[in-house]
Amino acid sequence: MKKEDKARIIEELTAIVKNYPHFYLVDTAGMNAEATSALRRKCFGDGIKLIVVKNTLLQKALEKQDVDFSPLFGTLKGTTAVMFTETANKPAKLLKDVKGGVPSLKAAYAEEGFYVGADRLEELVAIKSKNELIADVVAMLEGPTQGVISALESGANTIHGVLKTLEER
After folding, report:
1. What is the pTM of this model?
2. Of 20, 44, 90, 105, which has the fewest CB atoms closer than 10 Å, so is most exposed?
3. What tens digit of pLDDT does each residue of 103-133 get?
4. CATH of the domain at 88
């Protein structure tokens, strides 16, 4: 590969890393063409950008970032695909659903944290998306409100019953 081509690829990777808040490094060794094609379709359907990269070029692109990605450099060996996403847990859920353990997680950068090793997949699946967190907060805020409304309604019924009884006497 020519030096100009490498420089262009590094610049493209640098821009992609800046545009996505989360990415996963995945080992795709052992995947045949059919399995790779199926993975690409699943990723596309879930809004995940999947790119197979040369480890050295990815490392150079990561070194150009404002964040220190050095904890991930040790995983840049063998065949590496990068899954870029807007939602931190989508690739983890996709990887968990794949049968046979291929592709397998090497490392991830999600929610400004580093997750190195395939054993961290469950932690990544458990990360909640922004929309899930907002729904949790809304549910927590609605809980006390619903309790107050319920108490007021039952209190109104109780007072109404007492007044009706007194009126009948």
Report:
1. 0.75
2. 44
3. 889 999 998 889 998 888 888 888 877 777 7
4. 3.30.70.1730
